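Supplementary Methods, section 5.1.

A reviewer requested that the exact input to the structure prediction be made available. We therefore reproduce it here, unchanged from the version used in the analyses.
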Amino acid sequence: MKETKLNNEEILLIDGHAHCDGPCGVYDPASARVAAEAVQSMTKKMNALEANHGESGGSSAAYINTMSRYAAIKEEEAQKCKDELLVLWTDFFKPQHLESLPNLHDTFWQAAKLCSACKVEVSEQHAQELMDAVEAIHNMFWATKGREVPWIRAS
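The structure derived from this sequence is encoded token-by-token as follows.
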């Protein structure tokens, strides 16, 4: 705790660190997993919708509406996943974690790049690679806590 004075009034400042810039200290990669699963689900739905409508059906209002909604959800969830991963990378993981996790930075960097790729593409391969990267991060995270938490998908 640090004490300082402002305008002749005593103020106490508490130094705390957490994902929300408050002292809660609550971190979990589960929210990134849920977002990545949604990206993968929407990607599959977009590809299935296109296959069901063929080239000529792509101009129908229903097709355009549904495809637009799937794309918006996919992009929003990819951004959520990226945001959640960046919080873990920049706020939870510390320099001492690099000793036991030498590929930590590359894993997060690649995962963030995959989030971006999933936003601009409709690639089932990249969506699966994102899921694999989030699973690797899940395992890294829980290893730092000395816990074995199974990787369980919601879908």
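The chain has a mean pLDDT of 86. These observations are discussed further in the main text.
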